[in-house]
Design a protein that fits this description.
The complex is a heterotrimer of chains A (107), B (467) and C (387). Chain A is mainly beta. In chain A, 7% of the residues lie in helices and 26% in strands. Chain A is globular and about 40 Å long. Chain B folds into three domains: 195 residues, FAD/NAD(P)-binding domain; 140 residues, FAD/NAD(P)-binding domain; 67 residues, Arc Repressor Mutant, subunit A, CATH 1.10.10.1100. About 1% of the residues of chain B have low confidence. Classes of the chains: A mainly beta (107), B alpha/beta (467), C alpha/beta (387).
Chain lengths: 107, 467, 387
């Protein structure tokens, strides 16, 4: 499968198990095996939260030691997006605000 | 109420898996815990089966994964070890001492395990390298980028800059190129490794690695992405996310702005020594590693009898050193438990280890942590990401009389955040050492305190509710 | 330079020691502050930062507490340093009828002494603290105005301002011996040297007992190994600093682990919860395996919203106390020039005052004769000599 420049997910996608999760109130496609961080990156979302001083933060270490990629998952706050596998119906809330890259917002 | 076991292994990367597999082979009851849901750690990280899995490039990984998930090992996934204590607190009779391991995992996971011997295989994490703008979304470690592209099949960005040192950057470059990303540049902080030919004999036998390196170089040549040697990224800039990287020679003689949306930092790794320090093992500062590592004997036993450390958690050596050390530590634990241990097996492990350590030593020698990284810091560069403490604030604390990492921590709060100092303690120590004109060993470390990973309050309780 | 020595050497760089050193320097006394670790690395660094009035012992302690409390409204201005002082009020939770009677009586007596403290029933408490579980208290002793601050910053302020007035501070310097000759201090020993001093002030917390022994004095000090924990930053949870009326019952006689309860949410959002304590002869800083679960059990019972809050560290330290619940403050009659200042039950509120009193004593200024009640060599019921 040729990878188009605007797609962020690397295929093939047909063999995967599709799920639906909610990101900041919007229903979004995801795949079993992906982490919350992956889903956000696939959406073009870089900012996952803001610090006390209002600084934007996102994915940094990708392995659960930096505690920067914190989002709210199913009502529980301060969950590391990179360490949390998605599940069908998961409700994800970021404090990111609108920062999607130009182009399609999600798959 | 806690379970008892002969051997508990913390960390399921190559070292931990090899230790558990070796123990199982000897018929030793062994429990293996890892914070992640899949074994493999970082070196043998698995792509989730639901995403198609990937054939592992390493010949040893499949056997170890099978051993861990077979019957002989009590496998505890998604389980963090947050505390390690001498079992009864009595430190006099060391030979009979055992350990209390405090765990937090999914429902049904034991909260406490009493282990007669413990092997820590906690691995390492990407060394944090602060510079102005390094906290902007889009700046990430090389490890994070590799996980995303290789195991999660998502591009971490479109136009990517790599900055760091050493051959792992090439591996990342190849995966990113194959995934269709554009590489703005690959920067290596060190000069071209001209001296490498002198260590050619150390490379003998490292065929898989050489092959990997060759594949990477070929991919880069095809994409016309070259390496800029002796180069660093000096600043990351952008409005709420990375939009530009200011790059230039390590000596700071010139700068150039590149339009990028992602910066991947790969300046090596630092051992995770939190548990070994908490347990009271003696550590020493290793100037080659630029890190504190536990003191170990030839069985990889620390200064606490019955407690061993294997793999990168005792000093960066790479996946093969980790795998071999895991097996050796398990033999050491078996010996402590009074089991017979075949001397030929030990000798063969030692021999293989010597070879692999020599190779690892070459890499460290050719691609050391650049001495220029300190020049990247400006007064408003954040050192402590969690509490947002700047270089300037730390300098002020030093001017006000702080002479140790602990003192800086108490006054500025650097190191008091969720990451528990993992991202900032070494930077603070190095800054202190420079400002005071002292070696890093002289400025101390923060006191290790449990829980060494954040644990939900109810998870600290030794019995699960409803259990 | 070391030949001349110092007019005063203060041993112990915590709250009392740094305050004393500051006041001494301010008064023109040539002063050296010696600290074994970093400043605030003893019990002061484990202190929750509460500036408390309503838990004071009646009599001289209460009188001094009220006087000491007055210093806080101008403290930040005086020190020209932000120590994070704010007044959010405090609640001492009442668990049972016994405590209720005790508190009722205390409130009556405190109010007649002019302290703005009140007895609240369970319903009123939960209105003040909505996150508190209704089952966890039948009432509380409430003071709407008690304060809190950052003890590290207070110590830092004293150190900085003290230095500006000539105070010398040496951290990572252990005092191994207080030297006495012919009934008079001559100075202190460190591993490297002997330091001459006209006065030696022992403000070394639990360690003051061993140091006193080197001077031939057995101070009536015991200590508990106290432990506490702190969570990640959380949204607003506890509006007041929270304690337990069990504090009044604390006998510190048992060698079993007692779990008291105190909780405070820092301005940054982290929630500190303590405390598990047991009496011991050992002077350790290690968190034990049992303390964290014990504290966690209490915390989640009283504040269920804390159950999923991530705990990011625990700490432990020996905390000195005197079995009769009064501090040690004053000269040692048998050893001229030796002053002791430690063993406070509620330290911060008396810190500025004690700092000033120590300077007064050293300078030979007149002090309230009733302070003899706190004499470090008084007979104390329940005091067992060290093995």
């Amino acid at each position: 499968m040729r990878i188009a420049k605007s797609e962020r997910r690397l295929g093939p996608l047909e063999a995967r198990q599709a799920l639906t999760v909610e990101v900041d109130g919007e229903a979004v496609a995801a795949f079993a095996g992906e982490s919350v961080a992956t889903v956000l990156l696939a959406l073009g979302r870089r900012t996952f939260r803001h610090t006390d001083h209002g600084a934007p933060r996102g994915l940094y270490c990708g392995m659960g030691v930096c505690f920067d990629c914190l989002v709210t998952v199913d009502g529980v706050e301060n969950v590391r997006a990179c360490m949390t596998p998605v599940a069908d119906g998961m409700v994800i809330a970021t404090a990111g605000g609108a920062d999607t890259e130009g182009g399609a917002a999600h798959e | 109420m806690s379970e008892s076991i002969e051997l508990a292994v913390v960390g399921a990367g190559p070292a931990g898996m090899a230790a558990a597999a070796q123990a199982a082979e000897l018929g030793l009851p062994v429990a293996l815990a890892d914070a992640f849901s899949l074994p493999g750690g970082q070196y043998y990280k698995q792509t989730p089966p639901a995403l198609g899995g990937t054939p592992t490039p390493d010949e040893y990984a499949p056997a170890l994964l099978a051993a861990v998930q077979g019957g002989g090992v009590r496998w505890l996934p998604g389980t963090s070890a947050w505390g390690l204590f001498p079992e009864s607190g009595s430190q006099q009779d060391q030979a009979d001492g055992s350990y209390l391991l405090c765990l937090y995992g999914p429902p049904g996971t034991p909260r406490r395990i009493k282990a007669r011997t413990v092997i820590l295989a906690p691995g390492a994490y990407d060394r944090p390298v602060p510079f102005p703008g390094w906290t902007l979304p889009g700046v990430m470690t090389a490890g994070a980028a590799l996980t995303m592209v290789k195991h999660q099949h998502v591009l971490p960005g479109q136009r990517i800059l790599l900055s760091g040192t050493g051959p792992l950057q090439l591996v990342l470059a190849r995966h990113l190129l194959e995934a269709g990303a554009e590489l703005a540049a690959i920067l290596d902080a060190n000069p071209f490794p001209w001296r490498g030919w002198r260590d050619a004999t150390a490379v003998w036998g490292q065929w898989a690695r050489l092959r990997e390196g060759w594949d990477s170089l070929r991919a880069m040549a095809q994409a016309r992405a070259g390496i800029r040697w002796s180069h660093l990224v000096w600043r990351a800039e952008g409005d709420g996310r990375v939009e530009r990287a200011v790059v230039g020679p390590s000596d700071g003689s010139s700068h150039e702005a590149l339009a990028v949306d992602t910066i991947c930092l790969g300046h090596g790794f630092t051992p995770a020594v939190q548990l070994s320090r908490l347990a009271g093992c003696e550590h020493r500062y290793d100037t080659d590693q630029r890190a504190y590592i536990p003191v170990r004997d030839q069985w990889l036993q620390t200064t606490r009898p019955g407690l061993f450390v294997a793999g990168d958690g005792a000093g960066i050596g790479g996946k093969d050193v980790a795998r071999l050390e895991g097996a050796l530590a398990a033999l050491g634990a078996a010996r402590t438990l009074g089991r017979a241990v075949a001397p030929e097996r030990v000798a063969s492990l030692q021999q293989a280890l010597d070879r692999q350590r020599r190779f690892a030593g070459v890499l460290t020698d050719l691609f050391p942590l650049s001495a220029h990284l300190a020049d990247l810091l400006t007064d408003d560069t954040l050192l402590c990401r969690c509490e947002e403490i700047t270089v300037g604030q730390v300098r002020q604390a030093i001017a006000d009389g702080a002479t140790t990492v602990s003192a800086v921590r108490m006054v500025t709060r650097a190191g008091m955040g969720r990451c528990q100092g993992r991202m900032c303690a070494s930077s603070v120590a190095e800054l202190l050492a420079r400002e005071l004109g002292q070696p890093v060993e002289a400025v101390g470390q923060a006191t290790p305190r449990p829980p060494i990973v954040p644990v939900p309050l109810e998870g600290l309780i030794d019995e699960e509710e409803g259990a | 330079m070391p030949d001349r020595g110092y007019d005063a050497v203060v041993v112990g760089g915590g709250l009392i020691g740094s305050a004393a050193a500051y006041h001494l320097a301010l008064s023109g006394v040539r002063t050296l502050l010696l600290e074994n670790g970093d400043l605030a690395s003893g019990a002061s660094g484990a202190n929750f930062g509460l500036v408390q009035v309503q838990d004071a012992e009646f009599g001289l302690s209460l009188e001094l507490t009220l006087k000491g409390y007055q210093a806080f409204s101008s403290l930040q201005a005086e020190l020209d340093y932000d120590v994070g002082y704010r007044r959010a009020g405090s609640l001492l939770l009442i668990d049972n009828d016994q405590q209720w009677s005790t508190v009722e009586e205390r409130v009556r007596r405190l109010r007649s002494a002019g302290v703005d403290t009140q007895l609240l029933d369970g319903e009123e408490v939960c209105r003040l603290e909505p996150s508190l579980s209704p089952e966890s208290a039948i009432g509380a002793q409430y003071h709407p105005d008690e304060g809190e601050l950052n003890p590290f910053k207070l110590i830092q302020a004293y150190a900085l301002r003290g230095r500006q007035h000539g105070l010398e501070i040496r951290t990572h310097t252990e005092v191994t011996q207080v030297r006495v000759r012919a009934g008079r201090v001559t100075g202190v020993d460190t591993p490297a040297e002997h330091i001459l001093a006209g006065w030696v002030v022992l403000a070394a917390g639990a360690w003051a007992r061993y140091l006193g022994r080197t001077a031939g004095v057995d101070l009536p000090l015991h200590w508990v190994h106290g432990e506490a924990l702190i969570t990640e930053p959380l949204g607003p949870l506890a509006r007041h600093s929270i304690g337990s009326a069990a504090f009044y019952e604390a006998t510190e006689e048992s060698d079993q682990q007692e779990v008291g309860f105190c909780l405070r949410q820092r301005p940054e959002g982290n929630v500190m919860v303590g405390e598990a304590a047991f009496v011991t002869d050992a002077l350790g800083r290690g968190v034990t395996a049992n303390a964290l679960p014990a504290i966690a059990r209490q915390a989640q019972r009283r504040f269920p919203a804390l159950r999923q809050a991530a705990v990011i560290r625990g700490w432990a330290i020996p905390v000195a106390f005197v079995p009769d619940n009064r501090p040690l403050l004053g000269p040692v009659p048998e050893v001229e020039g030796l002053l002791v200042a430690t063993g406070l039950k509620s330290t911060i509120v008396l810190t500025p005052l004690f700092g000033a009193l120590i300077a007064d004593m050293v300078l030979g200024r007149e002090v309230d004769p009733r302070l003899a009640e706190f004499s470090p060599t008084r007979a104390v019921a329940g005091f067992a000599p060290l093995a």
